[in-house]
Amino acid sequence: MKLVGAPKLVVWAEKIRTERLKFWQESDPGIFKAIEPLVAAKTSADWWIANKGKGLDAICKQLLGNKF
Fold first, then answer.
1. Exposed, middle or buried: residue 39 (CB in 10 Å: 0-12, 13-18, 19+)?
2. Closest CA to 41 of 8, 68, 17
3. Structure pTM?
4. Rounded to 5, what percent of the chain is helix, strand, coil?
5. pLDDT digits 0-9 by tens, 22-34
6. How far apart (Å, rounded) are the C-alpha atoms in residues 35 and 61?
């Protein structure tokens, strides 16, 4: 999906998204597969930039409302 935001932020966020998706998938493929649709729905460049350093557990808690 195409990211939305300021053009320079989108370029940066696309790089972050690629790196994070690979990292999260390698961290725990099973959990990543379960949350992948939720992550794919995140199209805001700002969201990707804000979450650039977070691990899979933190992302799961954020996306699932601390139910993880």
1. buried
2. 17
3. 0.89
4. 70, 5, 30
5. 999 999 999 999 9
6. 11
